[in-house]
Design goal:
DNA-binding, homotetramer, Tetracycline Repressor, domain 2, 208 residues, 0% strand, mainly alpha
DNA sequence: TATGAATGAGCCTTCATTCAT
DNA sequence: CATGAATGAAGGCTCATTCAT
């Protein structure tokens, strides 16, 4: 999958994979702060204690680095989401669970997420990014699939189904921009807050 | 304010301002699609039927162009928001009005907005961008000022006041990424949807 | 034809073409001496009193420079050869005329020729160089077309027709490597010498 | 002579020499096809089933590899030529024999020859290559020594002695570029063809 | 011996910016 | 005002070479 030659012997390959992973992770961090284009391969390399050329043992190009960051972000998210949806449960419970999962993922991959958002214009164009775009699409469809029945049941806080989805996407994605690890709210609380908003719910008990 | 020599005679100055405005607007469009760093001054110039050098009659540097885009975005928004807040009205009505104003502004300045978001990492750092950062802060404080009493009155759909603000920011800002001019929903409808979500309200009729 | 934007206004275009021509010619000279790969664009630029970047106004890439050198070499040669062959004349006279033309061209374009030969391995491979290869082929076919009847008439100094062609090619092409402008022999004399060898002729008068 | 540590024990040394020879030979092949500069040590190593580092057990540097290729080419040629010239024989017979020897050598070392020609610009400059240049010079002088008396005797097909030498060099060297092992003509036949051309001869017997 | 990771110098190329016309 | 040529500073990437294992 990588454009560079991956060792064959299991011992070496393992080490190689571990390091590649570290390179990508470091890249996510630096790109998130300095911006993809404004980050030099030299800077990036320095941040991993590697000479500039060393990066290219693990990554074929700067652009591929971006690709790998997206993969590290979307791969596990989709995987975990699929597992979750495979379980039998009510749509509202599943949506809540999925949003929790998602917010947790976003907060754990803040850097990846920020890069993903900032480089939107790159990802939206060109055949090379089709896979990434499809991954995102797939995730949105999972959300849609859960929102639809809830909408049909009149459980949503807005009349328009699609607006609900867009709002949810906006809220959760934006989380990467303000969430701080040791903040007042845990990822789960944040997620629940979003879902509550979507359901227009929590005030119900307040009424009487 | 511009780094280039602005004509003194009113007739010329007017024309100059008009053209500068067009340049900035064009830049917003191209930057939104290709990305700031990935857009060449040449490309930008070509899109306005100008040679590369021509840009520099109206703009001092590429970076200043980014600054002007932010100004074109935040200036009028803050201005209109201030006017609105100066009127006497209930917080909930004002919040709804402000969100409408805001969503309208975002949809009318989609390109500006997208650039603003993508270049977050630039704007977040450096003295040069302090003014821009403050503008954004100021706007958020307006929202906060309206949300606080609503929260105190138990009118919000979430327990945490700041989460409400963050959610609102996420929803509205994200709008720039999916809104299409001739879509099903008008900016006002979208704005109302967001506010409804925030209030956890619209299901009110469900009550009895 | 060039990969760079050529001016539209005739005045400028003329200057542009003249300079591009000069760039290519300079490149031929430097490449011939230092070798294509071992020549830096910087060095090349310096030899024309241009900053490194300046080259790229006239040429799209280093590789294209090689292409243009080949064109400058083969284009006029083929053109002049075609004109010559269009005239009515005996094959032996035409061959002699063609070889003269050819040797003159080679000596006038020594640098181009040396580059052409040294970069043989590049030109022999890849779609990009097809046109160049065809040009060379075309010229060889012209020679073949003249040699064939002479061979049939038993006029050649060797039994094998193709060997005659190969020998001729070897002799003439090699000329670029030893010819010096103010040497003992003029290009025409050299050419005649080659043709004499090919005809196995001049000693005829010696016989009696 | 090699810059790398050559084993002392005869058994090992033999194996070492054999392998070094193979490395050089492989290099000749790859360089001939891809070009010296355009061939990576990695590519070269791969073509001998060796990792990049492995090459350096047998060769001190890439440049030395080029030197060794030249040696593998010129060494045996000069040796065999000396032996031949040491025998007593008429100049014309010796020239014919020498050209045969030479053409055979060229066809057997096509790759070496092609590299030698392509890297002309390297070999022509610098103290390091003096020895190689002298080897070539020496060989040319042998040819000259045979051509001179033939010229004096009016046996050549051209008036100019040096032109004859240049033509011969051109023909034979060029052979590497078109000769194919199982072609119509054997190296000896090719050689004889060249000599015939030089003598302007073969048709003589035809006359009567 | 052999391997593959790592280095670091260097090169092609891009591009914001300047300036003579 | 506008143009397009020219500059020159970087930056991504390659690759010969070294070295611990």
């Amino acid at each position: 999958m990588a454009a560079t030659t991956r060792p064959t012997r299991p011992r070496l390959r393992e080490r190689y994979d571990r390091r590649q992973d570290a390179v990508v992770r470091a890249a996510a961090r630096v790109f998130a702060h300095r911006g993809y284009d404004q980050t030099t391969i030299q800077e990036l390399a320095a941040s991993i204690d590697l000479a500039a050329g060393g990066i290219y043992h693990y990554v074929g190009s700067k652009e591929q680095l971006l690709e790998l960051i997206c993969d590290q972000l979307m791969g596990p998210l989709l995987e975990r989401a699929r597992v979750l949806l495979a379980e039998a449960a009510e749509p509202d419970a599943q949506l809540r669970a999925l949003v929790r999962l998602w917010v947790e993922h976003v907060t754990e991959h803040r850097d990846h997420m920020l890069v993903f958002q900032q480089e939107r214009h790159v990802i939206e164009r060109g055949a090379r990014w089709r896979r990434i775009r499809e991954d995102r699409k797939r995730f949105e469809q999972m959300l849609e699939g859960l929102i639809a029945p809830l909408h049909a049941a009149g459980r949503l806080g807005v009349a328009d189904e699609r607006l609900a989805l867009a709002a949810l996407l906006g809220m959760v994605n934006h989380t990467a921009q303000w969430y701080r690890p040791r903040g007042r709210l845990s990822p789960a609380e944040i997620a629940d807050g979003y879902v509550d908003l979507l359901f227009g719910a929590p005030r119900a008990p307040v009424d009487p």
